[in-house]
Write the structure tokens for this entry.
Amino acid sequence: MTDEERQRAKERSDVNKAVRDAHKWNDKKRSDVNKERSDMNKIYLTDEELQHNMVQWLFLDDDTRARMMAWPHGWVFFSRLGECWYGIPHPTWGDEYIYRTKPAPVDAGKEHSDVVKERSDVGTIAIQEVLEHEDGSATYTFDMDEKAHKKLAELGLELAMTCVAYEMDIQEAMDHIRWLGVSKEVNDEGGHPLKSPDKPISGDI
């Protein structure tokens, strides 16, 4: 082979290499564009939404996938065969599957703490002593905290203002309340309703 033929062969080789490099660059560029378009269509879910997910693994974005895979409380996946959710200790993370995270276990101590905190706004009234008398009556001694004391004062004031508005004294109002209670008991037992008293009543009914 002459020097001229060698030169032409080298030029052809260089051209072919340039063409191959151009094809590789185009393929990579096309792949990057397709990946970018695909990523734009991926779905982001919050941690709370992961527990109610209905999106296939293929369509979740990288951040959502990473958080789901790192979830410490386990997963379930949807089985089309049984049309139901199954717990799975080691997911395969297949593109066609739908996965959900399991909720965190309930902290009994925290739940009790929340209940106590919720009830902390309620006053407490405790019966300290009950002294029974020969006539059948009894004297009660109560102990109450500041919240209960305040609430009872508010209710007492409301009762007094209501009595003033309807021109009744407090004893009359209490008598009518007792009558309503007895009347309800009679109705519940199937008896005849009691007539409303024409005047205040007191004592045993």
About this structure: Residues 1-41 form one domain.
